[in-house]
Design goal:
This protein is an all-alpha fold. The chain is about 65% helix and about 0% strand. It has one domain.
């Protein structure tokens, strides 16, 4: 899978996760389709996809044994690094620590890791 395809998988899984886990009606920006996603966000999604893919490969697939929380934490940490890359002074919500993230976002991050994992198998 190319980085662009990986970025798209990330975004589509994010949108599906938001629809599944978000309580109530999500903000429009949370579910913006791929075609309308800003370039920086596409790049960040591609980078996180590659980090998860590489992490799984380096562990010879054994990273699949991580708990769902550990998988979500990995995605969240990779995303936070991308926010610092793309923004000089990111919004606090963009770089919040795992414990500060809402449950719906934690679940969606874990969904992303598992979707990448499935795409490699």
């Amino acid at each position: 899978m190319s980085e662009n395809e990986g970025a798209r998988l990330f975004r589509e899984t994010w949108i599906a996760g938001v629809h599944r886990h978000f309580p109530g009606e999500p903000k429009a920006g949370y579910v913006t389709p791929w075609e309308d996603t800003p370039g920086w966000e596409r790049a960040a999604a591609g980078s996180v996809y590659e980090q998860v893919r590489h992490f799984l490969e380096l562990s010879d697939g054994h990273a699949s044994r991580l708990s769902r929380e550990q998988k979500g934490r990995f995605v969240a940490t990779c995303w936070t690094a991308q926010m610092y890359k793309h923004f000089t002074d990111p919004k606090p919500g963009y770089v919040a620590d795992w414990a500060e993230l809402p449950v719906w976002q934690r679940e969606t991050d874990a969904d992303i890791f598992e979707a990448i994992e499935k795409s490699l198998g």
